[in-house]
């Protein structure tokens, strides 16, 4: 069974989780986005939990490798920087992150060799202040203030997704080649010349403005090299047809 890579990703620490189903759903959410380092501190119903295994549905390896701790200080003993997730305002002075900025920050810290953790509180009321004081920063999701409560697995999913976004490489371009500025200029010049021949630029004192508008239209269209070739070809064919050639 593949082993988690605890120093190359954040540890997701579930603090006093109450329902095995939520632990299993959190494991699924983590594995969806390439995370497998789960820590469980003082689960209400003990560990292992059959309900968690059933709910994990294919992500059982995250649960199999999960580390169990008696309390939160033990779960954080080897960590150097911790984010505590909370939706409520706290009377604690700490740096506040969104999931997006937190995971970007976590990526930079891990690249420097730091060992990062993210705390997720129990389902009923979330993390307590005594938990949060052990963290270096707060991670809060900008949810509806009239209904701020997130399910444990939902909060794990949001954070795991932002970790994935912060660490995944940019996709390689797989579409057609975008036309260069030189190709667009040549297309504009071709149309200007043929429209001049057709007497389109009338009245003369508006010609410069009309040409700018046409050139602006080409640049707005996000043309590909193939598009430019087709537009050249259309104009050539129209000219041939007009001249009877």
Short recap of the structure:
The chain is α/β, with parallel strands linked by helices and 245 residues long. The protein has helices at residues 20-32, 50-56, 60-65, 72-75, 99-111, 129-132, 152-167, 181-197, 207-220, 225-243; strands at 11-15, 38-41, 67-69, 81-85, 95-97, 116-120, 137-139.
How many beta strands in the DSSP annotation? Answer: 7
The CATH superfamily of the largest domain bears the name: SPOUT methyltransferase, trefoil knot domain
The strand order across the widest sheet is: 3-2-1-6-4-7-5
Largest sheet geometry: 7 strands, parallel
Uncertain residue segments: none
What is the string of SSEs from the N terminus onward? EHEHHEHEEHEHEHHHH
Radius of gyration: 29 Å
Give the distance, in angstroms, between the N- and C-terminal Cα atoms.
73 Å
**Domains, number:** 2
Average pLDDT value? 89
CATH topology of the largest domain: Alpha/beta knot
Return the structural class. alpha/beta
Question: What does this entry look like structurally?
Answer:
With 245 residues, this protein is an alpha/beta fold. The chain folds into 2 domains: 11-167, 3-Layer(aba) Sandwich (Alpha/beta knot), CATH 3.40.1280.10; 181-243. The chain contains 10 helices and 7 strands. It has helices at 20-32, 50-56, 60-65, 72-75, 99-111, 129-132, 152-167, 181-197, 207-220, 225-243; strands spanning 11-15, 38-41, 67-69, 81-85, 95-97, 116-120, 137-139. Strands 3-2-1-6-4-7-5 form a 7-stranded parallel β-sheet. α1 (20-32) packs parallel to α2 (50-56), α5 (99-111) crosses α7 and α8 runs parallel beside α10. It is elongated. The termini are far apart.
């Amino acid at each position: 069974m593949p082993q988690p890579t605890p120093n190359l990703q954040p540890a997701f620490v579930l603090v006093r989780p109450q329902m095995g189903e939520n632990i299993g759903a959190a494991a699924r959410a983590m594995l969806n986005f390439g995370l497998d380092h789960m820590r469980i501190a003082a689960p209400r119903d003990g560990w292992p939990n059959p309900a968690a295994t059933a709910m994990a549905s294919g992500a059982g390896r995250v649960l199999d490798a999960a580390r169990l701790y008696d309390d939160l200080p033990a779960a954080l003993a080897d960590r150097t920087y911790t984010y505590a997730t909370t939706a409520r305002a706290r009377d604690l002075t700490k740096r506040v992150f969104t999931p997006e900025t937190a995971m970007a920050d976590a990526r930079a810290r891990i690249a420097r060799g730091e060992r990062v953790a993210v705390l997720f509180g129990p389902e009923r009321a979330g993390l307590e202040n005594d938990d949060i004081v052990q963290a270096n920063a707060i991670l809060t999701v900008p949810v509806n203030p009239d209904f701020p409560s997130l399910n444990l697995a939902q909060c794990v999913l949001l954070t795991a997704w932002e970790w994935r976004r912060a660490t995944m490489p940019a996709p390689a371009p797989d579409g057609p080649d975008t036309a260069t500025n030189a190709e667009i200029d040549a297309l504009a010049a071709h149309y200007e010349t043929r429209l001049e021949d057709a007497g389109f630029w009338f009245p003369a004192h508006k010609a410069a403005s009309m040409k700018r508008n046409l050139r602006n239209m080409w640049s707005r269209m996000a043309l590909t090299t193939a598009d430019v070739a087709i537009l050249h070809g259309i104009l050539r064919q129209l000219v041939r047809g007009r001249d009877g050639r």
